[in-house]
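Re: that backbone. Tokens:
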């Protein structure tokens, strides 16, 4: 399969490596690669040079919309994957003529899939979810203060960077009905984006959810605790453990590429698990509702 990766940052390189290992014929769009026969300077040049079966948009978040429009205006009729979040801001646009997915690969984590089975016959009452990692430790060898994460104008900030949480919570427990939030910069990190966000919301099924996201935690943590009428289920995505009513089940450690590999496999096999175009737009709507709630200090309804 002929594949095109737009962007040569850390996530773009990961997609390139994985798709090469899967046996695909991989081309790149990047202004930073010289003398590479499989690299194009622009998306326009790539699309007019040959036909691709699969395109991955993996450039900076604020560039997603323009790149998407250029692909949408071309003769491309394959499969498109857009790195999360879909766009920096919500755009009321029609579904493209080609199949499009959003790269919320955490859906493919074995423990999230196991959670789906565990709650299938349970009445879920509430969830407390948390993710935190110290931003300067994210990308070793780089200056965090110059990364896109440090600038809201480039699509940075914890709400967009860590929007995996918004997606997997929606995937497991349904869409939000009303929410309230506090977001902002509360630390001395040298950034111009929010480093902390706390959200409380109700789902359409009246499940109560609280969520904290931050760039501050020097102990990398990612977990969620589910309360049902019969069980307390704590899922630790870092240590690969599920604790059910005090009984801890240890799962095998997974490779960092695992969820990305599974995401590509499911997308290319027309699975129902990957995040759809419409679901990706709903996450951006939720992000903007969180920002409005924090700014206006009030509950926001999903209307």
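Recovered sequence:
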């Amino acid at each position: 399969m002929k594949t095109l990766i737009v962007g040569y940052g850390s996530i773009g390189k990961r997609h390139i490596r994985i798709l090469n290992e899967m046996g695909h014929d991989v081309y790149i769009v990047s202004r930073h690669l010289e003398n590479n026969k499989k690299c194009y300077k622009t998306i326009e040049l790539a699309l007019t040079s040959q036909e691709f079966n699969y395109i991955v948009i993996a450039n900076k978040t604020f560039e997603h919309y323009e790149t998407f429009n250029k692909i949408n205006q071309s003769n491309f009729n394959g499969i498109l994957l857009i790195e999360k979040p879909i766009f920096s801001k919500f755009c009321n646009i029609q579904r493209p003529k080609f199949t499009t997915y959003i790269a919320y690969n955490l859906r493919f984590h074995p423990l999230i899939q196991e959670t789906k089975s565990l709650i299938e016959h349970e009445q879920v009452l509430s969830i407390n979810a948390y993710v935190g990692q110290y931003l300067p430790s994210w990308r070793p060898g780089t200056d965090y203060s110059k990364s896109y994460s440090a600038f809201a104008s480039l699509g940075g900030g914890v709400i967009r960077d860590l929007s995996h949480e918004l997606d997997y919570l929606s995937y497991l427990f349904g869409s939000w009905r009303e929410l309230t939030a506090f977001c902002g910069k509360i630390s001395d990190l040298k950034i111009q984006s929010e480093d902390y966000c706390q959200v409380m919301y109700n789902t359409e099924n009246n499940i109560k959810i609280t969520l904290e996201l931050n760039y501050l935690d020097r102990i990398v943590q990612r977990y969620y605790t589910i309360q049902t009428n019969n069980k307390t289920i704590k899922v630790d995505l870092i240590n690969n453990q599920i604790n059910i009513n005090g009984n801890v089940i240890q799962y095998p450690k997974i490779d960092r590429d695992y969820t990305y590999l599974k995401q590509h496999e499911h997308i290319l096999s027309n699975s129902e698990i990957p995040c759809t175009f419409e679901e990706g737009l709903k996450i951006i709507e939720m992000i903007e509702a969180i920002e409005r709630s924090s700014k206006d200090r009030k509950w926001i309804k999903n209307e």
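The longest strand covers residues 124-132. The helical segments are 10-21, 43-49, 64-72, 110-118, 158-161, 164-173, 258-268, 277-296.
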